[in-house]
Amino acid sequence: MEVSELLRLSGVVIVVLGLLFKFNPLLVVLVAGVTTGLVSHLSLVEILEAIGNAFVSNRAMSMLVLTLPVIGICERYGLREQAEHVIKKIAAATTGRVISLYILIRQATVAVGLIIGGHPAMVRPLISPMAEAAAAAKSIKELPPSLVDKIRGMAASSENLGNFFGQNIFPAAGGVIYIVSTMSNAGIVIEPIDVALWSIPTGIAALIVAVARYMVFDKQISREIEKLGGAK
Amino acid sequence: MKALLSAITLEHLYLSAGIVLRICAIQSVADKKNPHRIGTGLFWLLFGLTFLTGNFIDPKADPAINRPYYIAAGSMVVAMTAIACLKKISVGFYNESTKTQKLEYRARFGNAIFIPLLIIPIVIFSLSIAFKINALIGLGIGAVIGFIIAICMTRPKAVQMSNEGRRVIDAIGWAIILSQFLAALGFLFNKAGVGEVIAVLVSSVIPENSYLMSVVAYALGMMIFTMIMGNAFAAFAVITTGIGIPLVINLFGANPAAVGALAMVAGYCGTLITPMAANFNVVPAALLEMKDKNGVIKAQLPMALIMIIVNIIFMYIFGMIK
Predict the structure, then answer these.
(1) Which residue from A119, A120, A72 is spatially nearest to B167, judged by alpha carbons?
(2) DSSP state of B93
(3) Distance from the CA of B45 to the CA of which of A230, B36, B60, B264 falls in 20 to 30 A?
(4) Which residues does chain A have within 8 Å of residue B85's beta carbon, measured at their own beta carbons?
(5) Position A1 confidence tier, pLDDT thresholds 50, 70, 90
(6) What pLDDT does residue A50 have?
(7) What is the pTM of this model?
(8) How far apart are CA A157 and CA B135, in angstroms?
(9) Where do the structural domains in chain B lie, given as residue ranges?
């Protein structure tokens, strides 16, 4: 392969190095974008135009802005506290069980084409406070910030895994349509329903892997609480 | 009802998002307790303006007409990047309720406080069933209805309504534009033909007579290229055309529906472990106010690695089932 071909990958190298050395991701993306544009012989103005074009066309990604005021107001009036209150009344609730139940619901609903999730709409206001409260209810002392961080990370993971591994089970999902149209562009005819059916085994496998991980996480939480000064 | 609802377009919702951000900008500048109130205000103003700029653009119009708007939006993105890199954006003061007040409110509202949030998925669902309204528009309408219910229930002061929204928006901070900016990078990568180069590189290292190795190359190619692009769809077209179709499907006669489905989720395994998928990994870490900005990726890494192995095995087996 010629050097000029490999030069096209310079943006990729900048992204990897930039993130590795912990530069501000926005700066990394900007430098990588400008470099990639320059090696494909675009002028700076054309690069600016391309960035503006793609940025504006992808505004849908930031629709979450509209949901934030609702969350903010509900939080002011005790949303988190109520989520914690509800979970503390359920003796069987553990962090792992809360997020396992969530991934189950998330995956089952997205598999039939329903969107009832999202980090802003579900995880921040409900799932993460419940998962934290389930652990806090079992500890005499307050949970250390590092453990709270891990619980939040796990709560976010249940949203992502449930969403990703459930969505293509729905035959009209964007991913399924995209697979069918990419294949048909190459002259290969497949049916959306077949793609959806072949997505079921991996969906089930992902659910099993995630729930197993969350059960192990419960054990890790119990151990940390023991070390901390004992469980209730 | 239907006519009224279908009159609501994405543009209206972008306009609303733009208004929310501009209110946020004004309040930020007025917030004397924010150490970088000008930078913060400017950041949200620019972000709000990019929403507005989009509404002037008709994608079907002559590209020459749209050009100045795109260049303006691109310049705003660069300016926002500068503000973030110079660390001129920060959190401020929001006159939050105290813990005691929150507990009092909790006792007063009980489970009713969930209604404004739970109404959002209900609206998305009913509008899509009853009027076939797109989920994104449903989300926007649901958020507006949720907001109205929330203020009718709790009756906060007007200034506090926007203060609370600003509190959550500030908590996310500059990371909020990362998803859109990365989409722009993906666009430039595409223009430069990054995908084709990667597909050639990957297919040049795999032995041509091994079905297992071509399956591994297809799945890993999907995962790695998704990690670079932050988007499995962008990776799918390139890697499927470069590796999946010529090798796995044409050479070894694998079932295209099965390998296609599994290649896409192999890409999703990549999405789980890359900061390039900002809206799934980086923004949630900010939204959940986590100390470790890579905390979501760290939580997902072991599960993603197990799932890529599972998907390779599935693709190998299911590919041969017709």
Answers:
(1) A72
(2) -
(3) B60
(4) 24, 26-27
(5) low
(6) 93
(7) 0.89
(8) 22
(9) 1-91, 94-155, 193-318
Phi-psi label, residue A90: left if phi above 0, alpha if psi -120 to 50, beta otherwise? beta
How does DSSP assign B24-38, residue by residue? HHHHHHH-TT-TTHH
Mean pLDDT by 10 residues, chain B (322 residues): 77 92 95 95 96 80 85 96 95 92 94 92 86 85 94 90 92 91 88 83 80 94 90 89 92 96 98 93 94 95 98 97 84
User: Shortest CA distance to A115 belongs to which of A174, A66, A58, A74?
Assistant: A174
Chain B residues whose CB is inside 8 A of the A48 CB are 70-71, 74-75, 78
The angle subtended at Cα A164 by Cα B178 and Cα A72, nearest 5°, is 50
Of B102, B264, B287, the CB nearest to A124: B287
Q: With an 8 Å Cβ cutoff, is B38 touching chain A? A: no
Minimum distance, in Å, between the CA of residue B270 and any CA atom of chain A: 11
B246 in A contact zone (CB under 8 Å): no
Q: Running DSSP on this structure, what letter comes out for residue B275?
A: T
Q: Which residues pair with A231 in a beta bridge?
A: A139
Residue B216 neighbours by CB under 8 Å, 6+ apart: B206, B312
Across the interface, whether the CB atoms of A145 and B200 are under 8 A apart is answered: no
**Residues A105/A161, Cβ–Cβ less than 8 Å:** no
Give the pLDDT confidence of A89-131 residue by residue, as tens digits.
998 999 999 999 999 999 999 998 877 778 988 999 999 999 9
Structure-token match 């100390």, residue found? B291
Do A70 and B288 lie within an 8 Å CB cutoff?
A: no
Q: Look at residues B184, B234, B178, B76 and name the one whose alpha carbon lies nearest to residue A175.
A: B234
ipTM above 0.85, yes or no: yes
Phi and psi angles of residue A231, each rounded to the nearest 5 degrees, phi first: -95, 160
For residue B147, the chain A residues in CB contact (below 8 A) are: 69-70, 73
pLDDT in tens, A162-187: 999 999 999 988 899 999 999 998 89
CB contact at 8 A, A12 and B227: no
Distance CA A173, CA A191 (A): 13
The SS3 call for residue B242 is: helix
- Higher-pLDDT residue of A2, A77: A77
Q: Does the beta carbon of B192 lie under 8 angstroms from any beta carbon of chain A?
A: yes
Quick one: pLDDT at residue B16?
A: 92
Contacts of A9 in chain B (CB under 8 A): 194, 197-198
Interface contact flag, A25 B280, Cβ < 8 Å: no
Q: Which one-letter DSSP state was computed for residue B96?
A: P
Q: What residues have CB less than 8 Å from A232, skipping those under 6 apart? A: A137, A138, A139, A140
For A8-43, b/e burial (b = at least 16 CB within 10 A) is bbbbbebbeebbeeeebbbebbbbbbbbbbbbbebe
